[in-house]
Fold this protein.
Amino acid sequence: MENIDNQQKETLQEQLGRYLPFNPQEEKDVSEILRRLLLGEDIWTRENKAAHLTASAWVVSPDRNGILMCYHKLYRSWSWLGGHADGERDLLKTALREVREESGLKMVRPVLGDIYSVEILTVDGHEKHGEYISSHLHLNVTYLLEADPSEPLKIKEDENSGLAWFSPEEAVKASSEPWFRERIYSKLNEKLKQYPV
């Protein structure tokens, strides 16, 4: 728990500065997020219409045989859970909040307090609550979280229409978004091998 407490005291810039990228995609994306932070760009809220911070979670079962996914209405795909920072400077706290809101889970805990993965995600223009949202970037930080598959799940009806536990391989296949399957979810599963039970 001490590692988690220490991580929360660091700024995002410090966390990203010591983060070891897993592959070239992460190397480029960490560099770009750091560049924006160093320039003082406000990326903490959606007021920045071009790019803003989000936090996602790869939610695993304690035995590492299950991955929790939601069926996201906007993307029409099974996907990870997460959401916008909306001014929150502790992105781990954001990831935990979003998982609880989107799944109804009460007992969600970090496997580690450090950043698990980093990615810049493109979001196509879309309608939300009757308003058009222009295409933009999600500067995303991912955390590895753990939950019990026997705990009841509750759909957040305004965002998703399904919640289910998949095997790690089936979680990748369930996504209808090729880029996420090939570049993100497969990577998250590969990294999971570094954190056995």
